[in-house]
Design a protein that fits this description.
The complex is a heterodimer of chains A (196) and B (488).
Chain A (H helix, E strand, L loop, with lengths): L2 E4 L6 H10 L4 E4 L2 H6 L2 E4 L5 H10 L2 H10 L3 E5 L1 H5 L3 E2 L5 E2 L7 E4 L8 E6 L1 E2 L11 E6 L1 E3 L5 E6 L3 E8 L2 E4 L7 H12 L3
Parallel strand pairs in A: 1-2, 1-3, 3-4, 4-14, 5-7
Antiparallel strand pairs in A: 5-6, 7-11, 8-10, 9-12, 12-13, 13-14
Chain B lengths: L1 E9 L2 E6 L2 E9 L1 H7 L7 E6 H6 L5 H9 L3 E5 L5 H9 L4 E4 L1 H5 L1 H11 L4 E8 L2 E4 L4 E2 L4 H10 L4 E6 L11 H6 L5 E5 L5 H8 L4 E6 L1 H4 L5 H9 L7 E9 L2 E6 L2 E7 L1 H11 L4 E5 L7 H14 L4 E4 L5 H10 L3 E4 L1 H5 L2 H10 L4 E10 L2 E6 L4 E6 H11 L3 E6 L11 H8 L5 E5 L5 H9 L5 E4 L1 H4 L5 H10 L6
Parallel strand pairs in B: 1-4, 1-12, 4-5, 5-6, 6-7, 7-10, 10-11, 11-12, 13-16, 13-24, 16-17, 17-18, 18-19, 19-22, 22-23, 23-24
Antiparallel strand pairs in B: 1-2, 2-3, 7-8, 8-9, 13-14, 14-15, 19-20, 20-21
């Protein structure tokens, strides 16, 4: 099955495309709303600002296209800020509505550790998305995260617990960067690519 | 691991002595005011030393201990306890436990009598050590027994906790004696004391299995460590791995290696090296472009492009970055983070501009530091020229400007395999909150441990050691894990 990578300008599309291909994806990269609405399997990347990333989705009607695809039964994987966009809302620079595909809110870390989190962190995960991952350590770069999301499938701790991954039916999100997480990250991508 | 605040009492005041010298006193004021200021909560253990008693052998500060105990503090009192009567004085004043030093080392019969009378659970043995030798009498004389003998004796009496102070470290803020605590063979719970001066020291002690608690004095009083934060940090899951980072020095498209930044030799193809390191467990890769001329900078961009195509771990690239456009070009070529050195010293605003444009996570300050008398100087132009800027001040300034991490290289140690410069690392890591990558001098697995444990580094970098295959990344990570340091 073809995997469609949403070509957001607020994302590290090139790195994610390389990793998806290395994980075996037959990849199509596009920012065409029509193609996105009809895609069977989507990847929504994102780095930097939630507000800017969400604005690009709405201004280009990609948000509606994603909803259409998911309602049709397409699978979707959000990565980093792409993962945060799946939630109801984020409190980065005021409150901004997200796609509302998974329940919960995204907030800044308020623990004693320096923000942003930059580096590897161990997650506790039990879900098919993590099948075959021997060493649950992934690479994170983030200042914001969801906490105790109802659809949480992986959790990590950075001065307090946070949601490292979510799944609601065929919608997945990972707060870490699978494209920078070596074999473990590629395995997660491969599991998503092979998801039926 | 428990974190126990400590105050020393002299003439009714909370004080600290440097190296146990009564001529070098710092006074902090009324003990209760001091405890309020450092936020010691009810129910907390509190270590109290009566300095006058430790010198003269006569308990004098019992009234203060009574007041502190009535505030709900669980006090372990020590200083000059030479007899059962002395020990009783403290227990009667409300102390939960007594801390007994000189007698534990020099008078086993008296120690035995105290333990029999009060119960072993109310007695903490205290051993003060300088250069491996037990000191007694307010640190002023040598004990007759060796450290191993003292430990064996008190353990045999049923005592469960032993407070071990390295007095060459105490109050000097140079870090605790990690090596001493690691070397001790005892079933007793070790309370580490002396030299704990940074949050990183507390975390490092908590990773040593036999250390059950640590005592912190001056660092709490000076505000370098906050008690609640230290306790939260050691209670949290110890899951964030420390990183091992191989470095490729690249010139004209080839990996090279140098000793003290000169005498450069060819060491291979960058893509091959990068892929080999990732599969060996590297947590990140650093590429430093040391091309001699601008003409060769485009070659470096090609190297970054090729390497990033085959690499699925974070890639940091530095060398010759002068402008925000150089920075952008490297990110576009596939770097995740870019290290700036000489250009940032000339124009510190470059750090702020890049942080705003690309995010703090993308900005690494590369600082090449060289010893110059009693301080370190930041070097420029590949470590060849002095900038006249103090390296430690510069690192702190770079953090304020928006650097996300510091790659700190000791020019003196680079290529020598004689160990990282721990003093340099501590000077920087005790002042900045952002992570520091230790670089320059790695020669053995213990060096990597020391940079993290004593130096406070959050990542350790080496080049020639890995290129020459004298050590593998796996060797390093396996050793770190065996020493209680989390790795991926």
């Amino acid at each position: 099955m073809k995997t469609t990578l949403i070509d957001s300008p607020v994302a590290n599309v090139a790195n994610i495309a390389r990793a998806l291909r290395a994980a075996g994806a037959e990849l199509h990269v596009t920012r065409d709303a029509g193609e996105i609405a009809n895609a069977p399997k989507l990847v929504l990347p994102g780095v930097g600002s939630f507000v800017a990333a969400m604005r690009w989705l709405t201004e280009n009607k990609i948000d509606a296209a994603i909803h259409q695809a998911v309602n049709r039964g397409a699978a979707l994987l959000g990565i980093c800020v792409g993962h945060q966009l799946l939630f109801d809302r984020s409190h980065e620079m005021g409150t901004t509505l997200g796609l509302g595909l998974v329940r919960g809110e995204v907030r800044q870390y308020d623990g004693i550790l320096p923000v942003p989190q930059i580096g590897w962190n161990r997650i506790a995960a039990r879900a098919p998305l993590f099948d075959g991952v021997e060493n649950g350590v992934f690479y994170f770069v983030n200042s914001y995260a969801a906490v105790d999301a109802p659809d949480e499938i992986a959790r990590a701790d950075y001065g307090g617990p946070f949601t490292a991954a979510v799944q609601h039916q065929r919608v997945f999100g990972v707060q870490f960067h699978p494209e920078k997480s070596s074999a473990a990250g590629l395995r997660v991508l491969r599991n998503y690519i092979g998801w039926t | 691991m428990d974190v126990i605040p400590s105050i020393d009492l002299l003439d009714g005041q909370a004080v600290r002595l440097l190296h146990g010298d009564f001529a070098r006193v710092t006074a902090y004021g009324d003990p209760e005011t001091v405890l309020d200021r450092i936020d010691v909560p009810r129910g907390s253990r509190l270590h109290v030393v009566d300095l006058e008693a430790s010198r003269s052998g006569r308990p004098v500060e019992t009234e203060i201990v009574r007041r502190l105990a009535s505030r709900g503090l669980r006090i372990q009192a020590g200083g000059g306890i030479r007899s059962l009567a002395d020990a009783r004085t403290w227990i009667d004043a409300g102390a939960e436990k007594v801390v007994i030093g000189t007698v534990a080392a020099d008078a086993p019969d008296v120690m035995r009598a105290i333990v029999d009378e009060l119960g072993a659970e109310r007695v903490i043995a205290a051993v003060d050590v300088r250069d491996g030798i037990v000191r007694v009498g307010g640190w002023e004389r040598e004990a007759t027994a060796s450290l191993a003998q003292v430990l064996a004796r008190v353990e045999e009496m049923g005592i469960g906790e032993v407070l071990i102070t390295d007095i060459s470290k105490d109050g000097a803020m140079r870090g605790p004696s990690f090596a001493l605590y690691r070397s001790l063979r005892t079933a007793m719970r070790i309370i580490a004391s002396g030299g704990v001066s940074t949050m990183s020291d507390v975390v490092s002690l908590s990773r040593i299995g036999s250390v059950g608690a640590c005592v912190i004095g001056r660092a709490l009083l000076d505000g370098r460590i906050r008690l609640a934060e230290a306790r939260a940090l050691v209670a949290a899951p110890n899951a964030i791995p420390e990183r091992v980072i191989p470095c490729l020095d690249v010139r004209d498209g080839r990996v090279v290696k140098g000793v003290n930044f000169v005498d450069i030799r060819d060491a291979g193809d960058p893509v091959e090296c990068a892929v080999r390191y990732e599969s060996a467990g590297a947590d990140e890769l650093v590429i430093l472009d040391i091309s001699a001329t601008d003409a060769n900078r485009s070659t470096a961009l090609d190297v970054v492009r090729h390497v990033s195509e085959s690499l699925f771990i974070p890639l940091t690239v530095g060398g010759g970055v002068r402008t925000i456009e150089d920075f952008r070009a490297l990110l576009r070529a596939g770097a995740d983070r870019v290290a700036i050195n000489t250009a940032a010293i000339r124009d510190p605003q470059l750090i702020a501009d890049c942080a705003r444009e690309f995010g703090v996570q993308a900005v690494v300050l590369s600082c090449d530091a060289k010893r110059a008398g009693d301080h370190f100087e930041a070097m420029v132009r590949g470590g060849r020229e002095s900038s006249g800027v103090d390296a430690v001040d510069w690192c702190r300034r770079a953090e304020e400007l928006g650097a996300g991490e510091i790659l700190l290289t000791s020019v003196d140690r680079d290529g020598t395999n004689s160990g990282y410069d721990i003093e340099l690392l501590r000077a920087v890591t005790s002042l900045v909150k952002i992570g520091v990558i230790a670089s320059g001098g790695a020669g053995s697995v213990e060096h990597f441990r020391d940079a993290i444990e004593a130096g406070g580094a959050r990542a350790v970098l080496a080049a020639s050691l890995f290129h020459d295959r004298r050590l593998s990344i796996g060797d390093v990570k396996q050793f770190l894990a065996s020493e209680g340091i989390p790795v991926r």
